[in-house]
Amino acid sequence: MTSEITTVKELQKMDPVFGQLSFDNHEQIVFCNDKDTGLRAIIGIHNSVLGPALGGTRMWNYANEWEALNDVLRLSRGMTYKSAVAGLNLGGGKAVIIGDAKTQKTPELMRKFGEFVHSLSGRYITAEDVGMVTADMDTVRDVTPYVTGISESRGGSGNPSPVTAFGVYMGMKAATKFQFGSDNLEGKKVLVQGIGHVGETLVDYLVKEGALVQITDISETRLEEVSQKYGATIFRGDDLYAAPVDIYAPCALGATINDETAYKIQAKVIAGAANNQLANENVHGPILQERGIVYAPDFLINAGGIINVYGEIAHYDKAEAMRRTENIYNTTLEILGYANANNLTPQKAAMAVAEQRIEQRKKENATK
Ligand code: NAD
């Protein structure tokens, strides 16, 4: 007798990995467990056609294993697109460690994690993500060479955030040119949401160019600091999405473009650092397009960080990383043009360009 399946949850229980909604033909998923250190981690390798799967390790207190698996599947897939569209010879991967980074992260746990990374012989290369700092990558480096984002004193590239901010700035200028006919940000009203590592440097670039910058953050201390340092105005309105600005730069959380905000946003350009800004790319991307808002795809314009650590794989050269990051300007213009010509949203256009590059390489590899 066959039982009736009614919910996605039930389906997922039957096919807990390949049946996950976020599963998208991932090549390999590695579950790592170590009783002594308490390590429970998942490494997701989404696609390695273009090169080794590079992506950060996130340590997060996930509510359950489903959430952790879903996160690693989603994030590793995102890395495939990010590297492919940035023109890097890298595949997409990501790792999650289940636990509280503040209380459960120990050098022993990080070393054990490094051993698991090493066991993949370079198919996956790790880096820093939420819950990790450069010192953790240095610990991982003690047991494996398959790690980037290590300290400059150890030959690494250090903090990627300033490079990410530069790339976002380039992407924002390109999207502004596409929308307004000129990439000059002088006098443009820009709202930066989240003035952390990336947001603050972005504010610096914007203020220097003469943009009228407003900032929001959940930290009042940060707001005061950044406002005083750069002369940016603290946004004090009730609803930042309805603010009459030219450009909205999400640099805090993902999914800020959602059912509640997509019809409300007044900005004519959206360009920021946060990952996965569109709550649903199939729904919210088209709404922005219909409303004439130019959306610079997040994974395209926040690639400065990965471009920076990419340089570490051979020999790190800061100037080369900045040159490649500057090119985000050209790539963004190309993709916005391609989207327009093919009646695609910019997000779908960027994904198509990434997929074309992967398919092309697959063909080349097959004929070798
Ligand atoms: P961060 O943690 O340094 O800064 C985030 C800031 O956002 C903090 O100041 C925080 O107080 C603020 N914030 C949190 N919730 C908020 C809310 N609801 N409203 C307003 N502000 C809020 O992070 P970061 O390194 O600057 O990264 C920012 C975003 O860019 C993240 O989504 C990150 O995943 C993404 N990103 C970062 C890099 C990088 O190189 N750091 C690379 C690619 C993508």
UniProtKB/TrEMBL annotation:
<dbReference type="GO" id="GO:0000166">
    <property type="term" value="F:nucleotide binding"/>
</dbReference>
<dbReference type="InterPro" id="IPR036291">
    <property type="entry name" value="NAD(P)-bd_dom_sf"/>
</dbReference>
<feature type="binding site">
    <location>
        <begin position="194"/>
        <end position="199"/>
    </location>
    <ligand>
        <name>NAD(+)</name>
    </ligand>
</feature>
<dbReference type="InterPro" id="IPR046346">
    <property type="entry name" value="Aminoacid_DH-like_N_sf"/>
</dbReference>
<feature type="domain" description="Glutamate/phenylalanine/leucine/valine/L-tryptophan dehydrogenase C-terminal">
    <location>
        <begin position="158"/>
        <end position="366"/>
    </location>
</feature>
<dbReference type="InterPro" id="IPR016211">
    <property type="entry name" value="Glu/Phe/Leu/Val/Trp_DH_bac/arc"/>
</dbReference>
<dbReference type="GO" id="GO:0006520">
    <property type="term" value="P:amino acid metabolic process"/>
</dbReference>
<comment type="similarity">
    <text>Belongs to the Glu/Leu/Phe/Val dehydrogenases family.</text>
</comment>
<dbReference type="InterPro" id="IPR006095">
    <property type="entry name" value="Glu/Leu/Phe/Val/Trp_DH"/>
</dbReference>
<dbReference type="Pfam" id="PF02812">
    <property type="entry name" value="ELFV_dehydrog_N"/>
</dbReference>
<dbReference type="GO" id="GO:0016639">
    <property type="term" value="F:oxidoreductase activity, acting on the CH-NH2 group of donors, NAD or NADP as acceptor"/>
</dbReference>
<protein>
    <submittedName>
        <fullName>Leucine dehydrogenase</fullName>
    </submittedName>
</protein>
<dbReference type="Pfam" id="PF00208">
    <property type="entry name" value="ELFV_dehydrog"/>
</dbReference>
<dbReference type="InterPro" id="IPR006096">
    <property type="entry name" value="Glu/Leu/Phe/Val/Trp_DH_C"/>
</dbReference>
<keyword id="KW-0547">Nucleotide-binding</keyword>
<feature type="active site" description="Proton donor/acceptor">
    <location>
        <position position="94"/>
    </location>
</feature>
<dbReference type="InterPro" id="IPR006097">
    <property type="entry name" value="Glu/Leu/Phe/Val/Trp_DH_dimer"/>
</dbReference>
<keyword id="KW-0560">Oxidoreductase</keyword>
<keyword id="KW-0520">NAD</keyword>
